[in-house]
Amino acid sequence: MTRFLVYTSPARGHIYPLVPTLLELQQRGHHVCVRTLSTEVERLRATGLDAAAIAGAIEARELDDWKASWPPAALRAACRTFVDRAHHELDDLRGALQRERPDVLFTDINCWGAAALAEASGLPWAVFAPYLLPLRAPGIPPWGLGLAPLPGLLGRLRDGVMWTLVNALYDRSLRGLNGVRAAAGVAPFRHVADFASHPPRIIAYTAEPFEYARVWPPGVRLVGPGVWEPPTPTERGAPDGRPLVLVTCSTEFQNDGRLVETALAALAEEPVRVVATTASVDPGQFRAPPNARVERFVPHGPLLAEAACVVCHGGMGITQKALAAGVPVCVVPFGRDQLEVARHVQVAGAGTRVSPGALTPERLRRAVRETMEKKAGALRVAEGYRRAGGARAAANELESVAAGTGASAQRPRVRAPDARAMA
Fold first, then answer.
1. Which strands form 351-353's sheet, in the order they lie side by side?
2. CATH code of the domain made up of 244-384
3. pLDDT tens digits for 301-314?
4. Domain segments of the chain: what residues?
5. 143 Rama class: left (phi>0) / alpha (psi -120 to 50) / beta
6. CA dihedral 315, 316, 322, 326 (to 10 degrees)
7. For residue 247, what are the β-bridge partners?
8. Mind listing the pLDDT tens digit for each residue in 95-111?
C-alpha cells in the first residue's frame, strides 16, 4: 500500500475532477489523504477518502481576477493570488507531511508553495492540471488570450511576439514566487511560466482533440477529464419533446450572472426547455419564463444525458463534462482560462463562442441554434477523452511515480532533507 497526500487549491473545479482518480487509487488498495477547501471535506469523507481542510488563510485569499478590466490585468491578479497563497501553503503542507507521512505527493498546479515544498521533500511527486496547460510549443498560440492557431510565417511571428509578452506578464510575479521557493529550499525559477514545465510529472485532465495536437514534453500525461459530482437527489421533469438547454455560471464567483439573465431572455420564446444553475450567483435575482427553471445547484449529470446544448462561462469542469457526454457547448468567456476554453471549443468544432462584450439575447439565441448543430464535433471530443483513459490512466501514472519509473524517474531534481524530518 502506498500513501498518497493530495493537496489542492481552494476551488471545487480543482477537486471534483480528481475524485475519480483518487477513488481508483483507493480501490487499488492505496491510502489517499486529501487537503482541500473546507466546504468539500465532508463530501470527500462520504466517499471513503481521508480528507481535511487546507489552512483558513489560503481560503481567505480570494481569487479576485474577475475584477480586472482586461485579460493581462486578470493574469497578473491571478499570479498575485497564487504567490500570496503559496506562503501559507508552506507551513500548511509541512504540517500535513508530519502528520500523514506520505510516500507520494500530488499537488495542484496552482499551489506554487506546495509544489516547491514537494520538490524540496525528496519524495516522489507530481502535479495535476485541471485546465489547459500554458506550455509553449510550435504552432500553439500564447496561453490566456483566446487566440486561434495561425499557420505559416505570420503565425510564427505572432506567436513569438505574443508568447514573449505573456511571459513578461507572468514574470512580474517572479520575485514573489522565487521568495517562496527560497523559503522552501529549492532553486529559483528563471521565469514564472516554469511552474507549468518544471514538475517531473504533470497529469493533465484533458485530451486531444480538445487540446491542440503537439509533441508533448516527456513528463506530461493527458488522461482526459475527471467527471464527478456529489451524489444529490435529482428531480427529472417529464419529457415533452423539446430540446433541453442547460445554462450554468461559475462555481467560483466572477460576477457572471448576466449570462443567465441573457439566456433566459434569449430562449424564452424558443421551442426548448431551459434549466439554469447559478452556483455562486444568487438565483433569486432572476425571473424565469414559463419554459425555464432556475436553481443554485442541480446535478448536471442527469441533465446532460438529455441535453441538446450547454450554455456556460467556459469553466473546464462544465465544458469538459458536457463534451464528454457528447453535448456541444456555447461558451461566453468572462475571464481566467475561459478565453482559451472558448477558443478550443470553437476550433474543435464542438460548439460556439460569444464575447461577453457582444452578449445580447439576439446573438445568444443565434449561437445556441448554431451550437445545436455541432453534435458531431462534441462526439469527436468525447471519443478522444475516452481513448485517453481517464481515472485508470491517471492512477497508473501515479503508481509509476510511486515506483520511480517513467519520465519522472529520469529527470533530475533538487534534493533536500527528507519530508519525515521536516516541520
1. 292-295, 273-277, 244-248, 307-312, 329-331, 351-353
2. 3.40.50.2000
3. 899 999 999 999 99
4. 3-224+389-421, 244-384
5. beta
6. 140
7. 276, 311
8. 999 999 999 999 999 99
